[in-house]
From TrEMBL:
Belongs to the NAD(P)-dependent epimerase/dehydratase family. The chain crosses the membrane at residues 12-30. One of its GO terms (biological process) is galactose metabolic process. Pathway: Carbohydrate metabolism; galactose metabolism. Its cofactor is NAD(+). Its EC number is 5.1.3.-. CDD domains: UDP_G4E_1_SDR_e (cd05247). One of its GO terms (molecular function) is UDP-glucose 4-epimerase activity. Residues 53-368 form the NAD(P)-binding domain. This is UDP-glucose 4-epimerase. Keywords: Carbohydrate metabolism, Isomerase, Membrane, NAD, Transmembrane, Transmembrane helix.
Length: 396
């Protein structure tokens, strides 16, 4: 008995020592991981440099906005749950801005209020650009709850977290779909908002939530109502790459490129009997480079206790037929076009009056040549036939 006891003791000490070493090792590792250390560079405000939370930054517009912000020396934290965006876009940005403290990506779902709160607690944001949303008119008519739920709830979560953590500037991505089908063109910010599909209605609800909240706070709010966004980074670093399963609901430029690439047999133009010059819908196409410029100007001019609401469009309407012709020229493919019935939830004619943003933010659209914007986007599409996935990843 004595014998075994004396033999066991060193054994116990050895185990204890091992445990102490392991614990020390773990603490060391945790200390080096930014989440657990007080030295996370994003957890402190940097004087003179604005740290922007870009929600939905893996998506089409959010990634372009992040690129512009980073180029302009802002610090950027992207939060995205990749439900619709692309990790590939994040990787491009990370490669362009690898320096510590410039760009961080956080994979999280904004539908998760606790996750959002943690992100705000651990990071010192100066402003939020809230892009994350589901954003397809056609899909919204098929799955209204998805739209009402996600668009309003995520905006609430963001506002609550901003209020709880003292983040005072919000730039919100709204849409011309909140106007519905006004009688009078062009659309000004005073045009009554009477949305006619769940997407537009949910976006209007989110605007109302923001506006009511802003009345009781000193938040600086800018609401930008985009018209139809096209184009991509002129330097070819980023592009528009929606999930293949969203193709069906996709926007016209994506469909046009898919047709030119032979991924789909041709273009389906929905509705030729609208009361417009050539019977097809009229839209105001705004290049994404101009759009993100509007965001930077809005951020710059945002002031506490002030709300700015701005249309972001070119002020010029183009018919779908015109668009298709520009697309054929840009791609140099004679795309097959089928003319079909109207699609539910579409409106005949929509174009903006951008004079307010022009006057107050000194913003003007510069990329207004439809064919040029499409050529830029086409160059990226052609060199990325699988979107952000590499060709080898595609074959797996
Ligand atoms: N594309 C247009 O023509 C257009 C026009 C008007 C307004 N908008 C608005 O602009 C914004 C961005 O649109 P987009 O075209 O870049 O769309 P997108 O689908 O490319 O990007 C949206 C991003 O948000 C992310 N996201 C969605 N739900 C999320 C969640 N719960 N948590 C975290 N991330 C989430 C997605 O993963 C995606 O990366 C949207 O708010 C949209 O309503 C777009
Ligand atoms: C992303 O967010 C959406 C919207 O809240 C949610 O439905 C989806 O399940 C989330 N996906 C992931 C991978 O977190
Ligand atoms: C949005 O909300 C619905 C619930 O209404 C959910 O089923 C869906 O997965 C959510 N996510 C996205 C990305 O739409
Ligand atoms: C407005 O912007 C232009 C560049 O687009 C610039 O040259 C001009 O100085 C700006 N005006 C003001 C008042 O800031």
């Amino acid at each position: 008995m004595d014998n075994s006891d004396s033999r066991r003791k060193p054994h116990v000490y050895g185990k204890l020592l091992m445990a102490v070493i392991l614990t020390a090792f773990c603490i060391l590792i945790l200390k080096q991981s930014p989440k657990f250390s007080g030295s996370n560079v994003f957890s402190r405000h940097e004087p003179g440099v604005t740290h922007v939370l870009v929600t939905g930054g893996a998506g089409y517009i959010g990634s372009h906005a992040a690129l512009r912000l980073l180029t302009d020396s802002y610090r950027v934290t992207i939060v995205d749950n990749l439900s619709r965006g692309n990790l590939g876009a994040i990787r491009v940005l990370q490669q362009l801005f690898p320096e510590p403290g410039r760009l961080q990506f956080i994979f999280a779902d904004l539908g998760d209020a606790r996750a959002a709160n943690r992100i705000f607690a651990e990071n010192a944001f100066d402003a939020v650009m809230h892009f994350a949303a589901v954003a397809y008119v056609g899909e919204s008519t098929l799955e209204p709850l998805r739209y009402y739920h996600n668009i309003t709830a995520n905006t609430l979560v963001i506002l609550e977290a901003m209020a709880a953590h003292g983040v005072k500037t919000l730039i919100y991505s709204s849409t011309c779909a909140t106007y519905g089908e006004p009688e009078k063109m062009p659309i000004t910010e005073e045009t009554p908002q009477l949305p006619i599909n769940p997407y537009g209605k949910a976006k209007k609800m989110a605007e109302d939530i923001i506006l009511d909240f802003s009345k009781r706070s000193d938040m600086a709010v800018m609401i930008l109502r985009y018209f139809n966004v096209i184009g991509s980074d002129p330097e070819g670093r980023l592009g528009e790459a929606p999930r293949p399963e969203l193709r069906e609901h996709g926007r016209i430029s994506g469909a046009c490129f898919d047709a030119a690439l032979g991924i789909i047999p041709g273009l389906k133009v929905k509705g030729t009997d609208y009361a417009t010059s050539d019977g097809t819908c009229i839209r105001d196409y705004i290049d994404v480079t101009d759009l993100v410029d509007a965001h930077v100007k809005a951020l710059d001019k945002a002031r506490p206790n002030k709300v700015g609401i701005y249309n972001v469009g070119t002020g010029k309407g183009r018919s779908v037929k015109e668009f298709v012709e520009a697309c054929k020229k840009a791609t140099e493919v004679n795309i097959k076009v089928d003319y079909l019935e109207r699609r539910p939830g579409d409106y005949a004619e929509v174009y903006s009056d951008p004079s307010k943003i022009n006057l107050e933010l000194n913003w003007t659209a510069h990329y207004t040549d439809l064919q040029k914007s499409l050529s830029t986007a086409w160059r990226w599409q052609k060199s990325h036939p699988n979107g952000y996935r590499s060709p080898s990843a595609m074959s797996v």
